[in-house]
């Protein structure tokens, strides 16, 4: 046993605390990672704090939890029977926020080597890249297919970049904040729409010569904008939900869904740990693709990371996230 630290989350009242804990030595099939940093999944972690454990996928009644799923560090100990990993390996894992990660190594484990040239601050976001890439794959994008992205948090920005890599055009970025729209321009958006002062449906139709966007990605935390995404979609277009918006949405069945023959696709990646003959794109394959694209420079994170702070400042950082929409995007804790 060795001493360590971790972040503990409570939802009633919303609170994040840094506490000491014990880390066991790795057993058979495990590796122990000393984390350099952990990345924040703003949508899902804020959902836990605002709406409780069930909104994060945990059982009801879970009063406190150590959550998160993006870390980067080096392996410092290896249990018996582990193949393919060694002490000193630079890795990203799916462990929660803390100084250490004890990871079970298996063919489906969320642990990957970090390629050379990819920073610690960027590498952990491969897990959100997996989420974004799955949505892009489900959309089946084609070269010159028109795309609109609602919500330009990290997932929305990554969807935009991956749609660009797929050859989609035009790439329409939609948000309430000018600062996120400017980042979207750097991410590859060809057009930006501020939904707080522009008629989004009208502007999308202008940009697409009256047709509407053939694929619309819902990457925002506001469930209610589903109706707007459908209004922006072209006839026989697709709306893809890639965010985790809590709550309910009200839509018109006849005007958009029926008459335009739309397809609404949810993405969550349940069970995608093993390849299947009809769907080869596992979560691991998506993570590896994102890490490769980071190494090649085709997937950029540097402009999206606004805060790299010591873990001791985590409680204040979550307060900022819960109470302020401006001034932050990608957040990394240093350990």
Q: What does it look like?
A:
The chain is an alpha/beta fold and 335 residues long. The protein has two domains: 2-125 and 301-334, Alpha-Beta Complex (Quinone Oxidoreductase, Chain A, domain 1), CATH 3.90.180.10; 128-266, Rossmann fold. 28% of the residues lie in helices and 28% in strands. The chain contains ten helices and 16 strands. Strands 3, 5, 6, 7, 8, 15 and 16 form a seven-stranded mixed β-sheet that branches. A six-stranded parallel β-sheet has the order 11-10-9-12-13-14, sandwiched between helices. Helix 4 links the parallel strand 9 and strand 10. Helix 3 (126-139) packs across helix 4 (154-165), helix 3 crosses helix 9 and helix 6 (200-207) runs parallel beside helix 7 (226-232). It is globular and about 60 Å long.
List keywords for this structure.
335 residues, alpha/beta, Quinone Oxidoreductase, Chain A, domain 1, Rossmann fold, 2 domains, seven-stranded mixed beta sheet, six-stranded parallel beta sheet, 10 helices, 28% helix, 28% strand, globular
Radius of gyration: 20 Å
CATH superfamily annotation of the largest domain: Medium-chain alcohol dehydrogenases, catalytic domain
CATH architecture of the largest domain: Alpha-Beta Complex
- Counted by DSSP, the helix tally is 10
β-strand number: 16
Shape: globular
The total domain count is: 2
Topology as a string of helices (H) and strands (E): EEEHEEEEEHHEHEHEHEHEHEHEHE
Residues in helix, %: 25-40%
Summed over residues and divided by their number, the pLDDT gives a mean of 96
């Amino acid at each position: 046993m060795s001493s360590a630290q971790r972040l503990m989350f409570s939802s009633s009242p919303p609170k994040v605390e840094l506490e000491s804990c014990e880390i066991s030595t790795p057993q058979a099939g495990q590796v122990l990672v000393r984390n350099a940093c952990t990345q924040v999944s703003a949508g899902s972690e804020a959902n836990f704090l605002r709406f409780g454990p069930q909104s994060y996928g945990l059982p009801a009644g879970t009063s406190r939890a150590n959550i998160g799923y993006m870390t980067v560090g080096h392996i410092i100990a290896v249990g018996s029977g582990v193949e393919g990993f060694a002490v000193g390996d630079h890795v990203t894992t799916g462990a929660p926020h803390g100084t250490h990660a004890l990871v079970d190594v298996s063919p489906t484990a969320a642990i990957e080597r970090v390629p050379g040239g990819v920073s610690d601050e960027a590498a952990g976001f491969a897990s959100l890249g997996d989420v974004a890439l799955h949505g892009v794959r489900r959309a089946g994008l084609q070269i010159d297919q028109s795309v609109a992205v609602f919500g330009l948090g990290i997932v929305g920005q990554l969807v935009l970049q991956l749609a660009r890599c797929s050859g989609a055009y035009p790439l329409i970025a939609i948000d309430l904040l000018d600062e996120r729209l400017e980042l979207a321009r750097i991410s590859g958006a060809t057009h930006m729409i501020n939904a707080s002062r522009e008629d989004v449906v009208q502007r999308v139709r202008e940009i697409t010569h009256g047709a509407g966007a053939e694929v619309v990605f819902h990457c925002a935390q506001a469930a209610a904008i589903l109706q707007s995404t459908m209004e922006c979609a072209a006839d026989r277009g697709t709306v893809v939900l890639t965010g985790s918006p809590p709550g309910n949405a009200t839509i018109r069945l006849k005007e958009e869904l029926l008459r335009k023959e739309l397809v609404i696709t949810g993405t969550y990646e349940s069970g995608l740990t093993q390849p299947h003959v009809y769907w080869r794109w596992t979560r691991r394959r998506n993570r590896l693709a994102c890490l490769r694209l980071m190494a090649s420079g085709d997937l950029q994170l540097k402009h999206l990371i606004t805060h790299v702070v010591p873990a001791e400042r985590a409680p204040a950082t979550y307060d900022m996230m819960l109470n302020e929409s401006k001034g932050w995007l990608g957040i990394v804790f240093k350990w």
